Amino acid sequence: MSVDTAETHHPARYWHAMDDGRIQCDLCPRHCRLHEGQRGFCFVRKREGDHLVLTTYGRSSGFCIDPIEKKPLNHFYPGSSVFSFGTAGCNLACKFCQNWDISKARDMDRLMDQASPEAIARAAQEWGCRSVAFTYNDPVIFAEYAIDTATACRERGIAAVAVTAGYIDPEPRRDFYAVMDAANVDLKGFTEDFYFRVTGAHLQSVLETLVYLKHSTDVWFEITTLLIPGYNDSEEEVRAMCRWIVRELGPDVPHHFSAFHPDFKMLDVPATPRSTLVRAREIALEQGEHFVYTGNVHHRDGDTTYCPQCHAVLIERDWYAILRYRLTTEGGCPDCGAAIPGRFAAEAGDFGSRRIPVRMSP
């Protein structure tokens, strides 16, 4: 496959010059203020002369075809394949990061593959993928590359998916989600203390992104919460989070509770017990959430989509494999007729649980 190459130091959007001679990045709530040659907290946005540039435009830490359920998105064309890639860097400082070798990379040589937005859209189409996902590290920090790629995908009928922590300012948020078809947003905890101490960010900005997605866009989105023993897994915190979701976003936003495993700077913290995820799912259902899933553990109930009205099995999964798919052509329950929110095809895809690495550069 021939590949278009792309420049790496690409002009950045979302910045302004300050009176004291510095440049302020206006992409995320960090508002990094830079002198000549300095990089932002994310490491990939850099001041060069009187401008801000994105140093990872057109470069990737790798491309891979995944099941859409791995993002995780359970209500967005189940069973379909998604062309996934990320770059390097991150605008959060999560001590538990499970992709830390990418998100905390300070060595641009990790970005061994390259492709233009048009080449990615073309490759996704040639591989038969229904969507392209910006994942592995947060696409907010490579917004220009993600926006251009999503636009190229849309021209070919390929959907764009953002897997993100939702830490972004209002103006870029509008531009970013204007070209996205779906998103999975990490709601990493539900206290400001947890966000500040463990992720180096602030809760309110993430909540604002979720409210924006629900009430100001038609982007399909789901939420993931990684439960970490002793940090954000108390029943009280889970209950408060679920109450907020139902009150502010409604009961139909799918919510994934995922298991932590020791990594990065939290190697001394034990893995999340399966029972914690099962209990969190029970709490979410008790609080009125309709679609609650568990991740990183084997739990058939937590993999399966049930009708919230009659409780019939609609999409039975085993990990990422779909065993049964019982939705009407209108995306409803065949037993009681209840509408099931999401983006569904008449039949489920059959990609299964495969993972196919793709090399883009010659």
Describe this structure in words.
With 362 residues, this protein is α/β, with parallel strands linked by helices. It folds into three domains: 10-54, no CATH class; 60-297, TIM Barrel (Alpha-Beta Barrel); 304-340, no CATH class. 25% of the residues lie in helices and 23% in strands. It is built from nine helices and 20 strands. The chain has helices spanning 100-103, 117-126, 143-155, 170-178, 192-199, 203-216, 235-248, 274-286, 300-303; strands at 10-11, 15-17, 23-25, 33-34, 45-48, 51-54, 59-60, 62-67, 81-86, 113-114, 131-134, 159-164, 182-186, 220-227, 255-259, 292-295, 305-306, 313-318, 321-325, 356-358. The strands form five sheets. Strands 16-15-14-13-12-11-9-8-20 form a nine-stranded mixed β-sheet. The protein is globular. Mean pLDDT is 93; it is low at 1-7.
Layout of secondary structure:
Blueprint: E1 10-11, E2 15-17, E3 23-25, E4 33-34, E5 45-48, E6 51-54, E7 59-60, E8 62-67, E9 81-86, H1 100-103, E10 113-114, H2 117-126, E11 131-134, H3 143-155, E12 159-164, H4 170-178, E13 182-186, H5 192-199, H6 203-216, E14 220-227, H7 235-248, E15 255-259, H8 274-286, E16 292-295, H9 300-303, E17 305-306, E18 313-318, E19 321-325, E20 356-358
Parallel strand pairs: 9-11, 11-12, 12-13, 13-14, 14-15, 15-16
Antiparallel strand pairs: 1-6, 2-3, 3-4, 5-6, 7-10, 8-9, 8-20, 17-18, 18-19
Helix pairs in contact: 2-3, 7-8
